[in-house]
Write a structure and sequence with these properties.
About 95% of the residues lie in helices and about 0% in strands. The protein is an all-alpha fold. It has one domain. The chain is rod-shaped.
Length: about 180
């Protein structure tokens, strides 16, 4: 923008110089004032056209500079975008890998815990079965002992009752009395 102002000022100075030169030349010739005005107008128009060309050239240069700056910014933005995508992809891959490792650890730990629980349950079952078997055997042993004692007592009572009935039948009780 500053460059354009300088170019316009430069073109204006050139026009003023060109306008001043014909005035001096016409004054020396003593020419007609209308011719002098016409010459000055032509010189002014020529200077205006030249200044307009300079302004257009300045605008084109500025447009090229702006396009160049835009393309540079666009490239930087695209590069930043691409590197951000690459970094995000790396982060995602790392997170997925870490999640897979954590899953493996958890899976292994859960499997070990399951095996340990199964082992403990098996030991508890075995212990319970052993205790139950011991209790069963004790109960059977006690029941057998009670049965034998009961049978023994019943046999004894049966023998005593049979003996007493036999003695009564033979009249032994009556004699003893």
């Amino acid at each position: 923008m500053v460059e354009q102002k300088e170019q316009v000022e430069s073109a204006t100075k050139q026009v003023e110089e060109q306008v001043a030169q014909p005035q001096a030349a016409t004054a020396e010739k003593g020419a007609d004032p209308l011719s002098e005005l016409l010459g000055r107008a032509q010189n002014a128009y020529t200077a205006y056209i030249e200044a307009q060309k300079e302004v257009a050239k300045g605008f084109k240069e500025q447009q090229l500079q702006l396009e160049k700056a835009y393309k540079k910014t666009e490239k930087q933005t695209n590069d930043t975008y691409d590197s951000t995508i690459v970094e995000a992809l790396k982060s995602r891959e790392k997170a997925e890998q870490k999640a897979a490792e954590e899953y493996e650890k958890s899976d292994t730990a859960a499997l070990e815990l399951y095996r340990e629980s199964l082992r403990q349950a098996s030991e508890a079952r075995r212990g319970t079965i052993e205790q139950t078997m011991k209790a069963y055997q004790e109960t059977v042993k006690d029941a057998q002992k009670i049965r034998e004692e009961t049978i023994g007592k019943a046999w004894k009572i049966c023998r005593e009752s049979t003996d007493q009935a036999w003695r009564t039948f033979q009249g032994e009780t009556a004699l003893k009395e």
